[in-house]
Structure prediction request, 862 residues.
Amino acid sequence: MKTSICALVLLFTAATVHAADTVYVQSSKAKIFANPSFQGQLVATANKGDALTLLETSDQWVKVSYQQYTGWIASLLVNRKPPQDKITVIKGQDGGAPQDDARRRASSSASAAAARGLRQDERARASDQSQTNYPAVEKMERTQVNEKDVETFMQAPAK
Amino acid sequence: MRHMINITRWAIISTCALFSAATQADTYHYNNILIGDRAAGMGGAYTAISDDPSGLFYNPSGIAHAAGASLNGSVNAYSNTFSEYKNVFGNKSWKRVSSGLIPNFFGLVQPFAGGMAGFSVVVTDAVADDQDQHFSNFTPAGGNDPSKDYYVNDFYINFNNQDTTYNIGPSFAFKPRDDLSVGLSLYGHFRKQQFILNQQVYRRNGEQIWTNGYFQIVEYGVNPVLGVMWSPVERWSVGMTLRKTVVLQSNSRKQITSKEADVAIIVQPTIETSTVIRDRPLQLSIGSAYFANDHLLFSTDLTWNQSVNSSQSVLNFALGSEYYINSQWALRAGLFSNMANTPKLSATQTGQLEHVDLYGGSFSVTNFTRNSSLSVGFNGNLGNGKAQVLATGVQDLQVWTLTTFIAASNSF
Amino acid sequence: MTSSPNKIFVTLLLLLSTLCGATNAVAEQDFRRRAHAVNSNEFETGDIQAEVAFGREIAARILGREPLRDEAELARYVTLIGQALALNSGRSELSFYFAVLDSEQVNAYSTPGGYIFVTRGALKQMRDEAELAAVLAHEIAHVQLRHIVNAMHIRGKETSGVMTWMSVITGGSADTAKVAFFQAVDQATNLLFKEGFNIRDELAADRVALMLLANTGYDPEAPSRFLTRIDTAERGAADAAPATTSEHAVRTHPSSAERMTALTTALRAQGLTDLNLPRRSERFTSYATHD
Prediction:
């Protein structure tokens, strides 16, 4: 019983020293503002994978400390887990530069899909609406751009 | 602690007045087992929380607030109770140990018909008392013939008492409003008690006494549990639970066989059966919980048990707290009471039931993964009181209990 | 039973009937949620794989209903805008894909795992690149917020904790899993084409879209402009002929008025007004307006 009282007291005390949480930047770049507002002064820019100390949360913003800076960042740009590598449905294909193996990946997704039982007859059995167009999906997946293309695209004069 | 029948008073002096209290078979305490995972860690202060499967027992309305699609939980407890009746024979004490693995709880909840439905199996009380002792060379108190030699060379006692109560049944809860929920559990009640007491006395004067008693009771009934939970302001929750076990059928049988000191042969067993139904108290719990933030909460319960037959009304309290170190680990702690429903003993009266008020604490650690949690916890209680295990005289009684439990829950 | 318990029962029932009659006082009880709830928002590799496989099947269904616009340059243009937004989303583990559907309906779709579609009809209603970005951002937001994943509870097998032991014990049938998978795909396809997301999810996607636009560097007022325009167009169309193709878009999206009010509020709350971020109407015209 004495131990339990001690434990209870410990719990009450523990409550006051709340453990700090870490969040990680998920986007390629993330702006940190002085206020929870895009109109706020820009305090710093963090990069993908950077660890930030979570101080406070509000609806769309979280208050963080980053290096010597403290400020607000859009909550959708951070997560409690470090950013993950690209995940595909095919095992053993997770790494690799996307632009290099785009074609290979598209076709192996199709075979993985087939392996998962997406055969015509099975689909008809399991589903009531089975018009699918996988070749079109593969075509869509072949439209690839790399990060550098995107950067150039966004830096073009704003016309 | 929870010896249902005061058979222990059935002492070595005589076999008269055996089982004087047998038909009254009442437990002396109402809060013997803390049910569930989270609740057991928090001293049972759960009436205003109750938002997981163990809530089906504490306050069925709480499951309306259960997070997740479908949840189930189970708890196994290993319980040890030590009772010491001090100086029964001179300076010699009686010691009893109750120990056993109790499948404390299993329950699941699932959304159904606009509310939450659940089903649970609860072991509300479980005793497995055991006493095997041998005493030599003493003069027991209470001999009424001054010219007679009551000196005992050897005394053997073997006592075994199994008493388990199960509640099994469905529940349903719904939210008539966002801040209010109502729920009902309709438990079937099943209880079985069985005990055997064997005593052999060898006196210095050559007399031999042997007594053997066997008692069994099987009860069937229902235990409706009605609960409401209301949140008057943000972060506060207030809960109320009303329950009463209604025994519908009861069959008991007792059998006594003996060889008295002054006769040479074993007396044929006397067998008595009874279908007398014992009345069980109405129980009202009121709880309040404060959800300080998503890492911390406090809760408190008061539980009142009505006075029935010779059992007095009892008020128990429970305090609990839960603290998450992070999203993976949580600590829980609690304090609670388990008051006796028997009157205090008087030095001059006879045929008195034992009386010991118990106070306890609990502590548990839980690890969470995405869809599951695993808890390990302890709870224990301790108390000093009085008992009258012989026909006359009052002994000091010390009781302490230590329970270890392991609990798992999953959501799908 | 004595009389006092009866009294308590009666009092309790009276109390209940009084409380049930009253109106909602306190909102949904989020305060009960404990810290471990964030664990269920954590997704492992297996979950993402399940999400992608699921979304890809729905994408194949969408393309089974509505053909892909066969215009490589337009596809690349839409993909560049989409990827720029996706780089600012919180879901770096996904490969997003973007496509234009050759349909005159004004609509856009997204599937779990990051397959985003916008119709040719929707492009025709747009005046600048920011508006196209707004539509793509709204769809990316549904993926970011895992609206379908959570509604359908799309998960891989849990690889840690008690669940692993549970699955070892209970096993699990591959056929059952397949049937469940296709039933969920059917449900999700229905959601996209017939029922639409619930208003709460739509408004949440709108709010996140504004943040995506501003973070990427597009005018966050574009959603309101586009919404106003299609609203006006739909009204006009409805007056002319009650059952037009736009009827569908109306059904799968909540009341424009409600969304616009919420957008205005969100713009102000997040400090997104008067940012003067580009609209890029010239570039949009050069890619998207020739037939």
Remarks:
- The CA atoms of residues 307 and 313 of chain B lie 4 Å apart.
- Residues 1-26 of chain B have pLDDT under 50 and may be disordered.
